[in-house]
Write a structure and sequence with these properties.
Blueprint: E1 2-8, E2 14-21, E3 26-28, H1 29-46, H2 61-66, H3 83-95, E4 99-103, E5 106-107, E6 114-116, E7 123-127
Parallel strand pairs: 1-7
Antiparallel strand pairs: 1-2, 3-6, 4-5, 4-7
């Protein structure tokens, strides 16, 4: 089953959309995050278009530098991003409320909460931005 996932601001502005494939209709929030991160990183690692990674969580500073056009010439060959490290960052972000997940207009509270996903299921990841100076 293919699910469309939107990244949004708290005001509802769409930042990014990604389609993620799932084998079953019942998934946990943890599985949703895992599969999203895995597919985003896999797609990025396969690309060779020079575009920056755009995903749920950003790679480490080292990975960003190695994959930027500002990298030293000896590092110009783009280093693959580790999806498992990205997944761990995404789980940490959920725990710290760096973003929250809305499924069919209802916020999910737990990584172990089950979602009954179908073609009309609406999933949004709302990314919270820290206030400057606060």
């Amino acid at each position: 089953m293919l699910l469309c996932i939107r990244d949004e601001t708290p005001s509802g502005q769409s930042l990014h959309e990604v389609s993620v494939e799932f084998l079953t209709e019942r998934i946990t929030v943890r599985e949703l995050i895992r599969e999203r991160v895995h597919q985003e990183v896999r797609a990025f690692n396969r690309r060779d278009d020079g575009k920056a990674f755009q995903g749920l969580v950003q790679p480490t500073e080292t990975e960003r530098v190695l994959n930027s056009d500002k990298a030293e010439p000896r590092f110009r060959k783009r280093a693959p991003i580790d999806w498992e490290a990205q997944f761990a960052r995404a789980l940490d972000g959920f725990a710290r409320n760096a973003y929250f997940v809305i499924v069919d207009d209802r916020q999910v509270e737990s990584l172990d909460e089950e979602i009954a996903a179908g073609p009309s299921t609406k999933i949004s990841f709302v990314k919270l931005v820290p206030l400057v100076g606060g």
